[in-house]
Each structure stands twice: as structure tokens, then as C-alpha cells.
Design a protein that fits this description.
Distance between the termini of chain A: 78 Å
Radius of gyration of chain B: 17 Å
Distance between the termini of chain B: 56 Å
Structural class of chain A: alpha/beta
Structural class of chain B: mainly alpha
Largest sheet of chain B: none
Number of domains of chain A: 3
Oligomer: heterodimer
Number of helices of chain A: 18
Strand content of chain A: 5-15%
Strand order of the largest sheet of chain A: 3-2-1-4-5-6
Radius of gyration of chain A: 25 Å
Order of helices and strands of chain B: HHHH
Largest interface: A-B, 113 and 82 residues
Number of strands of chain A: 6
């Protein structure tokens, strides 16, 4: 028997591939080593694919070559030509493709192999349901992030009930798929198979459509975890260790991220997925409740910034919307030339996906050691001369600390209100996600800089240059 | 068969624990690249896809397997390239 084609050789190579994934993931944990970690992980993937291709289970190469070539073409061009600002939706889309691939592997095994045991059938059931949810859920996330779909919560009456019923019915189809018991005359397990796939796709839609923009980071991290679990389930379908290990690693890392996102909002996962925040008031902020709103214009803001020794920028989704990150970086550099210390405070759930703001600012050439977490900046907030809040709202809302009646009470925030002066860049007084009042706007030390964030920041940059 | 199953479950459980340990201390700056890099790893399902597509399992298996190869390849190639591009931007001055 040829060594390269032997099963033991393939399995040993899969173990090496698993080790490369583990090393790679470990190195992804620090900015200095992350890029190398990604390379190590990709070499593990290359090894796994190469070993599979020479393995004797594969007897014809025409079809898979077509799939591989088209996939490389599409994947490489999408990854190379997409704008950095569209990164979040692309990551969501790729995630969905991982899910559908696992679903298809499960389906191919189901339709191909003659007799399947209980364990294989159960694993196939899991790839179908997890892969299906991952696929349709990620497509919705893609649609919301790329603004093809509206970013708000899409709900209808009785949505939760419909979801529960569909889930139970999907489980019944799954049970039929696995045990093949007699239901009604002429009902073929194949029907259950097809309906299970359709219902899985619907479940994915029903879970993600009601998620509002501000909760997107949680659901994206969760879908990331699911794509790993789907791959793991596919590993049980074909009895392959490397799929199980790699899938489990991704599943675990996605769950950890999900947990971090939930903690950052002081909410449970169940609350994010099933309970939408009930808004205390809708529409505009009531000025009487939040105190006097004090607008400021660009030239006055410039005078204050010019005298500042320490500036903290707090970006939110609004910065992404107005594409202000390059102007922000330019302003930061001018402030530094002026002898001012500039840092960026980034809340874990700022933006629409985990780490969204960090990627935008890194793209704009902001050094990553200036990107800080709330726990780093809050203790020294009293020494900050000016806090510039750009399109962030809930993550700086003092109600989270002070008002027990607020829906976001208990959420860890960036305590911008404790800095000496707060500039809030905002289009208008319309409230943020869920229509929660933000008393920060009416605080004594707050100044509202109304208008498009990019224009306002560019105005400040122009003032510094003149 | 049953022994193999127990062994695979054993591997699964250990790998999950390992995953929790590996990721626990990732700074939030790297959350997006971590997700996208992990997502590329989940494209490992390409191994199953290649086997389905290339083995002699009948017409449907070949068609579905080839579609799986296509999607998994996008996931793998696109995922690693995008992660690499993103990480290239994280610079320290």
C-alpha cells in the first residue's frame, strides 16, 4: 500500500494540522504575533486539504477541482477587493458559507451512503440544523451590516411562539430522519430531510431578524460559534478528528466572544436573543429630563481642544456610518503635535461586530496601543481634559450607573461624563438604539457638536491647520 | 464503531476545553480578526466536502459535495486572506 494513501498517514497529518490550528489560534491572541498566527493556522488548513486530496477515498478529481477553483477565485477576489469598511459584513458572509458547506456535507452523506447508523444520522441531523441556522442567520447579519436590510429590529406579533413551534417541528423531522419510524403511509424520511433543512433556514431568519443593530455583535459572535459546531458535527458524520478538533476550537472561541459581548451589555444571552429592550420612551430625548442642551460650534470646540493636554476619543457606530475614522486620526495627530496626549476608548460592543471600531481605526493608521478598553480609561477619566464622543450613545450613558429604572442599568460604560469637558458629535437630538434617554447630553460639562461627524472633525482639522 | 464514537466524543470535549483556554485572554482590539481567523478554521469542513465531491457516492453526493467544496473554499481562502489583510493594518508606532 502506498504510504501517502494509507489511513494512518492521513490521520497523523490531520493531527499535525490540528496542532497548527491550536498554535495559530494562540498567536492570534496578541497583536505582535497575530499575523504569524494566522499564517500558521492557514498552513494547517493547506496540509489538511493536501492530505485529503491524495487520500484514496477520492477517486475522481474533475468536480472537486471545479469547486476548488471557483471557490478560490471568489474567495480571493472578495477578500482582496472589499473595502476595509465593509469588513464586518464580509466576515458575516464567509461565516454563513462555512455553515452551508457543513450542511451540504451532511446532505451529501445522507443522500449518498446506503445504510447509515444512528450515530451518523444524528450527526447529519446536527449538521443540517446548525449549518442551516448559521447560513440563513449569517445572511441576515450580512444584509443588516451592509444595509441591504434595515438595521432595526424586525418583529411581528407572536414571533417567539412561531419560533418555538417551528423548532419543535424541526426536532420531530430530525427524530424521523434518525429513527425512520412509521408516520403516515407514504411519508418518506427524505421529506423529513428536506423539510428539516427548510425549517433550519427559517429558524436562522427568526433568530436574527429581531436583533437590533446594537445587539449585532452578540449574534455575530454566536453565529461564529455555530459555524464551528456545524464543522464539528460534520466531523462526526465522516468520522474525522481534524474536523471535530478545529470545529470545537471555533465553537469555544465563538462562545467566549459571545459571553464577553453579553457581559459588556450586562445582559444574558437569552435576553439578547429572545427579549428585545422595551423602550422607555421613543423618538427624541426629552430636554426637561436630561437638563439643558448646550450646543457648541467648531471654532469654539477648537479653542478648547487647542488648550487641552489630554483628549480621549470615544467612537461608536456613528463614526462608521459617517466614515470619519481618517479625519479622526488626522485630528489625533494634530493634537499630538500640539503636545496633547490622545487615546481612544473603545467599548466592547461599540459598532456592529466585536472589535468593529478597532478595525476601522487600525485601517486609518491609529497605533493599536492607543486603543484602550473601558477598564483602562475609567480610572483616569478625571484627568482627561476633553472627551470626544463620536456617534456613540448607549456606551456612554450615565444612566447605566445612576438610574436603576433604566433598561441599560448595570451595563459597564465608558464614564465620559467624569472628564472635564465632553464633546458629543451627533446628527441631531434623536435618541440612540431603543430610544433610551441619555442624561450625558444635559450634563454641566457637556457640549453638543451637531452635524455629520466627518464634517465636524474635518472642520476641527481645518481650524488646527489654519 | 461504538469505541470510535466514544473516542471522538473524548476528542471533542478536550478540544472545547482547549478552545476556552486559548481564547480567554484575547484583547478586544483583536476581536474582529480573531473571529474572522476562527471562521476560516471552521472552513475545515472542506475536508469532508472534498471527500463527498470526489468519492463515488452517486450523482447527488457529487453535486452537493462539489457545492460544499465551493462554499468551504470561499470560507477558507477568503477568511484567511481577509484576516491577513486586517492584521496587516494593526501597527504600532
Amino acid at each position: 500500500m502506498d504510504l501517502l494513501q494509507s489511513e494512518i498517514f492521513a490521520n497523523l497529518a490531520y493531527i499535525i494540522a490540528s496542532m497548527l490550528f491550536i498554535f495559530g489560534l494562540k498567536q492570534l491572541g496578541s497583536p505582535e504575533t497575530a499575523q504569524r498566527g494566522n499564517l500558521i493556522s492557514s498552513s494547517g488548513m493547506l496540509l489538511a486539504v493536501a492530505v485529503t486530496l491524495v487520500n484514496n477515498q477520492i477517486i475522481s478529481y474533475e468536480w472537486l477541482a471545479i469547486g476548488l477553483l471557483l471557490g478560490i477565485l471568489v474567495g480571493a477576489s472578495a477578500a482582496s477587493f472589499v473595502k476595509m469598511t465593509s469588513m464586518p459584513e464580509l466576515v458575516a458572509l464567509f461565516n454563513g458559507f462555512g455553515g452551508i458547506a457543513s450542511l451540504l456535507v451532511g446532505s451529501a452523506e445522507y443522500l449518498g451512503t446506503g445504510s447509515l447508523g444512528l450515530i451518523s444520522l444524528t450527526a447529519i441531523f446536527l449538521t443540517l440544523i446548525i449549518g442551516g441556522v448559521t447560513f440563513s442567520g449569517s445572511l441576515v447579519a450580512y444584509g443588516k451590516l451592509s444595509e441591504i436590510l434595515p438595521g432595526r429590529q424586525i418583529t411581528f406579533k407572536g414571533q417567539r411562539l412561531v419560533l418555538i413551534v417551528i423548532f419543535i417541528v424541526a426536532l420531530l423531522f430530525g427524530a424521523h430522519l434518525i429513527f425512520n419510524f412509521q408516520v403516515v403511509q407514504g411519508w418518506n424520511p427524505l421529506y423529513s430531510f428536506l423539510l428539516l433543512i427548510s425549517f433550519s433556514l427559517i429558524i436562522g431568519l427568526l433568530i436574527t431578524l429581531p436583533i437590533g443593530g446594537a445587539d449585532m455583535p452578540v449574534i455575530i459572535a454566536l453565529l461564529n460559534s455555530y459555524s464551528g459546531l456545524a464543522a464539528s458535527a460534520a466531523g462526526f458524520v465522516i468520522n474525522n478528528n481534524v474536523l471535530i478538533v478545529a470545529g470545537a476550537l471555533v465553537g469555544a472561541s465563538g462562545l467566549i466572544l459571545t459571553n464577553i459581548m453579553c457581559k459588556a451589555m450586562n445582559r444574558s444571552l437569552a435576553n439578547v436573543v429572545f427579549g428585545s429592550i422595551t423602550s422607555s420612551s421613543s423618538g427624541a430625548v426629552n430636554p426637561e429630563e436630561v437638563g439643558e442642551i448646550k450646543p457648541i460650534n467648531v471654532s469654539d470646540a477648537y479653542l478648547i481642544l487647542e488648550a487641552a493636554n489630554s483628549v480621549l476619543v470615544v467612537p461608536g457606530y456613528g463614526m462608521a456610518v459617517s466614515q470619519a475614522q481618517h479625519a479622526v486620526r488626522e485630528l489625533g495627530e494634530l493634537l499630538e503635535e500640539n503636545g496633547c496626549e490622545v487615546n481612544y476608548a473603545i467599548h466592547p460592543v461599540a459598532g456592529r461586530m466585536p472589535g468593529h471600531m478597532n478595525v476601522l481605526l487600525a485601517e486609518a493608521n491609529v497605533s493599536y496601543d492607543q486603543l484602550q478598553e473601558p477598564d483602562d480609561v475609567n480610572p483616569v477619566m478625571d484627568t482627561v481634559d476633553v472627551c470626544i464622543v463620536i456617534g456613540a450613545n448607549d456606551v456612554v450613558n450615565p444612566d447605566a450607573k445612576e438610574n436603576e429604572g433604566s433598561p441599560i442599568y448595570g451595563m459597564p460604560i465608558i464614564e465620559a461624563d467624569r472628564s472635564k469637558t465632553v464633546f458629543i458629535l451627533k446628527r441631531s437630538m434623536a435618541s440612540g438604539f431603543a430610544g433610551i434617554d441619555n442624561p450625558l447630553f444635559g450634563k454641566e460639562n457637556s457640549r453638543m457638536l451637531f452635524g455629520d461627524a466627518k464634517e465636524s472633525i474635518s472642520g476641527l482639522v481645518a481650524e488646527f491647520k489654519s | 464503531m461504538d469505541n470510535l464514537f466514544v473516542l471522538l466524543i473524548f476528542v471533542l470535549v478536550l478540544a472545547i476545553f482547549l478552545g476556552f483556554e486559548l481564547i480567554n485572554k484575547v484583547p478586544s482590539t483583536l476581536h474582529t480578526p480573531l473571529m474572522s481567523g476562527a471562521n476560516a478554521i471552521s472552513g475545515i469542513t472542506i475536508v469532508g466536502a472534498l471527500i463527498s465531491s470526489g468519492s463515488d457516492g452517486g450523482l447527488w453526493t457529487t453535486i452537493l459535495g462539489t457545492a460544499a467544496v465551493f462554499f468551504a473554499t470561499i470560507n477558507v481562502v477568503g477568511g484567511y486572506l481577509v484576516t491577513n489583510r486586517m492584521l496587516g493594518m494593526f501597527r504600532k508606532k
